[in-house]
Amino acid sequence: MTRIGLAVASIGMAAALTACGGGGDDDFTAQSGSKIADQSKKAMEELEAVKVDGTVKSNGQEVSINMQTNNDGDCSGEIEVGGGKAELVGVGGEIWFKPDDAFWKASAGDSAEQIQAVVGDKWVVVPKDGGGFGEFCDIDDLLDELLTDGDDDEAKYTKGKTSEVDGDDAVAIEHTDEDGSSTGYVLVDDPHYLVRIEKTKGDDTGSVTFSEFDEKFDAEAPGDDDVIDLDKLAG
User: Fold this and answer.
1) How many CA atoms lie within 13 A of 156 on its CB side?
2) Which residues contact 155 (CB under 8 A, 6 or more apart)?
3) d(Cα 5, Cα 130) in Å, to the nearest integer?
4) Per the structure, how many domains does the chain have?
5) Which entry of 25, 114, 191, 226 is 20 to 30 Å from 167 by CA?
6) Tens digit of each residue's pLDDT (9 = 90 or more) over 41-88
7) What is the pTM of this model?
8) Cα–Cα distance measured from residue 213 to residue 228, given in angstroms and rounded to the nearest whole number
9) SS3 of 80, please?
């Protein structure tokens, strides 16, 4: 399942909002693009919970994520890849997923039918190493994947216009490198959260939005009778 995490991460690699030094200004939007990106990065690092929603394309395959996660190891949502969908839930660092038939076929190949016969409609335990899903259930890991630091200089960041994103004013920051270009939208009001990343040029394109900052959500572990551990069966 690792390719799922890598596909989602690809948009962030291209849209890296790097820290280039702080510096205050009475008018947030009057600052340089790199300083705005810096303040947004700091705001995102202080988050305790967030919702991530979007679709990216990697190697010609679309991967969609709709997930809430926090810093307690909890998560709740779903992932779509290869025309299939998988529900995902995590509680205190323990993670389970429940794929549909199309997801198994896309991810397990020739072994899909055999696995489906064993699993049925139960939740599957995600291995401790994450199995490609671990980053979705830890806010720090998820944001590290999506907002990887870069080494580009300030000239790589261009400040754009201020517009409304889901009803809030946000300033656009465009980042360009050899992989293409991406645009991040940063809230004008404090805290200066990143609310959207869009990549329209390059090999891996797509859009990811961030919302429900620091909001609580329900994540309930499935019952023991509804869970199967494939690693134990294989052992």
Assistant:
1) 21
2) none
3) 10
4) 1
5) 25
6) 999 999 999 999 999 887 777 889 999 999 999 999 999 988 899 999
7) 0.81
8) 33
9) strand
